[in-house]
Amino acid sequence: MGKFVTVDSTIGEVYNTPVGHDVLKKLLLQLGLPEQTILNPVVSRMRLNHLTKIMGKKLDAQMLMALLHLVNLETDTPAKGNGKIKRAWWKEAVFYQIYPRTFRDTNGDNVGDLNGITEKLDYLKDLGVDALWLSPVYDSPNDDNGYDIRDYRKIMQEFGTMRDFDRLLNEAHKREIKIIMDLVVNHTSDEHEWFQNALNDANSKYSDYYFFRDKGASGGFLPNNWTSFFSGSAWNEYDEQGVYALHLFSKKQMDLNWDNPEVRAEVVDIIKFWLEKGVDGFRMDVMNYISKEEGLPDGNEAIGELFGFTGIEHYMYGPRLHEYLHEIREKAFAPYDAFAVGEAAGLGMEMAKLVTGEERREMDMIFSFDGLENPGKERFDDYKYDLNYYRDYISDWMEHYGNNCWMSLFYNNHDNPRMVSKVNPNPAYRQRIQTLLAAIQLTLKGTPFIYQGDEMGLVNYDFKSIDEITDIESRNLYRELVNDGMTEEDAFAKILAGSREHARVLLPWDDRTDVVAEHLRQTPDDAIYNVYHDLIALRKAHPTLIYGKFRVMNDDRNHFTYARYDKSETFVIDCNLSAHRLPSVFRRDDFEPVFTPAYLENGADVLSPYEVRIWKKI
Ligand code: TEU
Ligand code: CA
Fold first, then answer.
1. Among 186, 252, 415, which is best to mutate for testing ligand 1, by the most ligand atoms less than 8 A from CB?
2. Contact indicator for 11, 51 with CB cutoff of 8 Å
3. I want to staple 192 with a disulfide (CB 3.0 to 4.6 A). Which of 52, 188, 266, 303 is the partner?
4. Catalytic site residues?
5. How many CB atoms sit inside 10 A of residue 517's CB?
6. pTM for the full model?
7. Tens digits of residue pLDDT in 201-231
8. Mapping DSSP to helix (H, G, I), strand (E, B) and coil, where does residue 456 land?
9. pLDDT value at position 38?
C-alpha cells in the first residue's frame, strides 16, 4: 500500500510515492530544473509547501492540492521487478510503424493504401522487420486522419476494402510479419452512429456512451474549463439539442464514457472482431486518458498553463484507469494471447510500472514520451535537441524500469517532427545522426519501433506556407496564435518547429510518379537503409542485445558509452552525441568492431561528429 500524503508531508515522502515521483519529476522537466533540485537531502526533508519557493510562482497552493489528490488516488506500489526477464515475441520483434495515408500509393490518387503496404511487404521483410503497427485504417471522415473513427468494422474507402485488408494480413503472416492495429477508443467520430443516435434522441441508451451536459443545467456556461489538445474549449455546443458534449481532441472526436459498462463491452467486441480476423495485437491510442474523474471537475489553471492543457490532471491517470485496462486485457486480449502497447503521454516511469508490470495484467508496454523533448522545451519550440538528455533519460529507464516491465524504443512517430532535424538540421550530419540514433535504438533493452522513412533518412519537410499543412492540430494552433496577436510569420515558424505534418509526407519511393514528385525534395538513402538492415541483423543474431544487462561506462558530456552483456557475450556501444570530435575512444585489445559506419575517419582515437561504433568482446 502506498502512503497517504498531505501538505504536511515532506518533499521526500511525496517523491517516494509512485505518482508523486512522476509528477514532481514532470514538473521539474517542464520547468527545466534538474532532478537534483529535490533529491538534495536538505530539500527532500522540507515540507511540501516549500516547493512553491523552489518552483516559483508557477506552483500555487491549489496546484499542490491537485497534486496530492492524484498521489493519493494511487494506492498500489510497483513490484521490485528483480526476477528474471520472461521471453516474449514482442520483446524480440523489431516493429515498424506505418502511417497508411503516406506510406505507399498504388492507384495514383496520391493517398497511400492497403495494397501499397502489401506491395512493400518484401521490402519490409528484407529490412528485417517482424511486426507492423498500422495507424488507423478504419472508416473515418478524416478530421484527424483516421483517429476519428466512424465505423470500427469497416475499412476507409480511400485505403481499399476489407478484402484488401484480409489479403494484407494474410501476405504479412506468410512472411512471418505480424500486424497490430490502432485501437482508438478514447473517442469516436461525431459521425459514428452511436454519437448520432445519442445526439438525436436524448432517451437513447447511447446518450450515456458520451459525456453530454445539459446547457440549462449549467446556466449556459461551459460545463468546465477543460481545453482541447487541438485548441479551444473541450466542449462542443449543440444549440438545437441544448447540450454540450466533451471532446479532448478535435470537435469531431467525441470522448467515450468508459464508466458505462456497455461502452467497455463494445470495446471488447471491437477488439475481438479484429482478433478473430487474426491480427496480432493493438496499439491503444491515448490509453491513459480513458478514465475521467467523476463529475468532470474544473482543472487547475496553473497546471493548465504549465502543461498547455487545462483539466489534464483529471484524466491523464484517471481513478479507474487500471481497472479498465485490466478488464479489457482479461476479456479481450488474453483469450487471444494478443499483444497491447498503450500510448501514454504524460506517464512517468513509476506510473508506467503500474500499467505494464507483467503481474498486473494491464498493458504489455507503453510509449513514454518524456525522451522526445529536452527539459523545459515543448514540441513547438524551435531548439536543438541535446542528445545528452536522451542519454540520461534512457539510462534511467534501462536501470530502473525493472525486469517485469519492458519498454518501447522510438524517436519518431506520426505525431512528431523528425528527430534527426531536431538534433541538428545541418544536412551534412543527417546520415551520421540517423545512424547514431539507429545504433542506439537497436542495441538497447526494449522493443524498437522504427517509423516509416527512418530507414530512408527522412528529415523535416521544407514547407513553404501554412497552406501546405493539412494537420488539424497545426492548423488550429496556427489560427489560435494569430488570433492571439502573433504575426503570421512567427506563427508559421512555430508550426514548422513542431508540426506533425513533417512525419506525414508521402514516402519518396524510387519509382515515384509525376504526381508524387512534387512532394519529394528528399531522396531516399540507401546507405541509411543498409545501416538499419545491418543493425537489425546484428540484434537478431545476438539475444544479448535484446535481453542482456545494461551498464553506462562513461559519464563525460557528449560521450555515451554503454555495455550490453550477459554470461556469454559483451558488447560496447561507443557514441559521440555531438557535432564535435571527441578525443578519447573506447578501444581494447580483447574487443573487435562489429559495426563501424563507412565514414569512420581513420580508425584512430577520435570519434568524429555523431559517430557510433559497436564493439564485441572476442
Ligand atoms: O495522440 C495523442 C497525444 O497524446 C498527442 O499526440 C497529443 O496530441 C499531444 O501529446 C499533445 O501535446 C494520439 C494520436 O497518436 C494522434 O495522432 C491523434 O491525433 C490523437 O491521439 C487523437 O486520437
Ligand atoms: Ca491510393
1. 415
2. yes
3. 188
4. 285, 343
5. 10
6. 0.96
7. 989 999 999 999 999 887 879 999 999 999 9
8. helix
9. 86
